[in-house]
Amino acid sequence: MAGATDYTAANVLNYITAQIAPPALTAVWLGLFTTAPTSDSGVTGATEVSGGAYARVQVAGQLTASSAATTIITFASVPAWVVAGMYVRDVTTPGNIPGGTTVLSTTGTTVTCSATVSSVGTNVVQFSAFGPPTASSGAEPATVPSFAQNNAVITFAQATASWGTALAFGLFDAVTAGNCLAWDWLGNFKWLPFSGSFASPSVLTSPAHGYANADVVVVSAKFGGSLPPTGGSWAGALTVASSSTDTFTAGVSSTATGDGLVRKILQQPIAINVTASFAQNTLVLSNA
Question: What predicted TM-score, i.e. pTM, was given to this entire model?
Answer without folding.
Answer: 0.94
